[in-house]
Amino acid sequence: MKIRSCVGITKPSLLLVHSELPALTFHKTKLTWTSTLRFPSNYERASGSATRFHCSVAGRTGASTSVSSSSSKSTTVHLSRKQVKPSSLYSRPSLSNMKKERIANRAKVYEFLRVLGIIPDELDGLELPVTVEVMQERIDFLHKLGLTIEDINNYPLVLGCSVKKNMIPVLDYLGKLGVRKSTFTEFLRRYPQVLHASVVVDLAPVVKYLQGLDIKPNDIPRVLEKYPEVLGFKLEGTMSTSVAYLVGIGVSRREVGGVLTKYPEILGMRVGRVIKPFVEYLEGLGIPRLAIARLIEKRPHILGFGLEERVKPNVASLLEFNVRKASLPSIVAQYPEIIGIDLKPKLLGQRSLIQSIIDLEPEDFGTVVEKMPQIVSLSNTSMVKHADFLKGCGFSLQQVRSMVVECPQILALNLDIMKLSFDYFQMEMQRPLDDLVAFPAFFTYGLESTIKPRDKFVAKKGFKCSLSWLLNCSDEKFKERLNYDTIEMEEMETMPSFDMNSLMEPRSDESDSDYEEDSDDEYA
């Protein structure tokens, strides 16, 4: 390396040097440094001399020579050396070498993953272990958690998580909350991103927020097990708006914690895309909004029924099978699951079965569904046994068909209790079978709690009444009837049916619609 500087002397008393810096040679123990300095004539006149230095270091020798020079117009310094290959006690790798080494190590890790069946294509740009041994440690740890190669391929970014820095702290925190270790495998399959999370920054604030929604501390682990994705939500995003909307339509504030515990997926539902369209569609069927709120309190999972994929097609299927449109609100209110199951195959199967055992007409099948929508999920064996029981009691096929159409519940009651009730009907009440054909709901009343006490009261009064007059009323109403001298025709009541208003009865814990956190004593 040579550095040149050209300067001049502006005053005789000042020295500026035009030099060619010495070239130094390090070779074993020999150092040669030759320097020749020449000064301009004007400086020479002032000083009267020029000095030449020669220094040689080899075997601890040295020489210095000073001679006069009469004419020199410039000053030069020249240092020369032999060019040899440099050496040092250590060498630092260049950036290019370091980059090549990283690429080589990553290639080894990728090859290792491919041998195991893991596709590393999505790992480009992700910080990975530099050695195969560390990667093996991560994979072994994931295997201990129950995750398979297929699970890792579903989310290969999990390989970027350090066992000590990421995985263990997160799993320890979940365990302290009460999340069962037996659920870790399914937990991580559903939400492996949790292993990237910070306990303090990401997880703890979400848990605190859930507690603020009146989810009991003991229920927090169950909520996380059911819906681990909730740990990735923003606190003031979807979670807060979904809860506020439900309270706005009439869901009791005190019920919010229970609703979210039963079905925490609500926290991830968008109001405008999911919840609101669902509620408005049910309103369009004729179900009052407050009744919908009560249904959500009892069965919050109905919000997960896909509106376009399941609910609307199921409603169309009900109409196709001779269910009256006016009966749709009652059907959904009685059995909300009917709009969320794969309905059409069940309707086909149940209609075919009932036709085969009691010769039911297709038109009557719609009536049966209206009165007991749960029949679409009733087991075939149960229906066959109940139909055989009724036939064994002496009812004709036509009578059995009439009884089923009038009260489909007789196909689903406890057979042993039905037998006891029928024995009492025959032996104690000594009524004709036609009374049961006219009022098959007799089997739905409790023998000890209702049938026997009322039958004895009526017998004591000497009344002759129908089974409907005897049973189809409240206890208070029945006491009023016992004071009558005669049985009035207007007192004859129709078959019991579902009352939509029962869903909207005032609640003792009713509260304002605007959501706000309840105090501890109010919640208790």
UniProtKB/TrEMBL annotation:
GO terms for molecular function: nucleic acid binding. Belongs to the mTERF family. Gene3D superfamilies: Transcription termination factor 3, mitochondrial (1.25.70.10). GO terms for cellular component: chloroplast. Keywords: Chloroplast, Plastid, Transcription, Transcription regulation, Transcription termination, Transit peptide. It is found in: Plastid, Chloroplast. This is Transcription termination factor MTERF4, chloroplastic. Pfam families: mTERF. Residues 511-524 have a biased composition (Acidic residues). InterPro entries: MTERF (IPR003690), MTERF_sf (IPR038538). Residues 64-77 have a biased composition (Low complexity). PANTHER family: CGI-12 PROTEIN-RELATED, TRANSCRIPTION TERMINATION FACTOR MTERF4, CHLOROPLASTIC. GO terms for biological process: developmental process; DNA-templated transcription termination; RNA splicing.
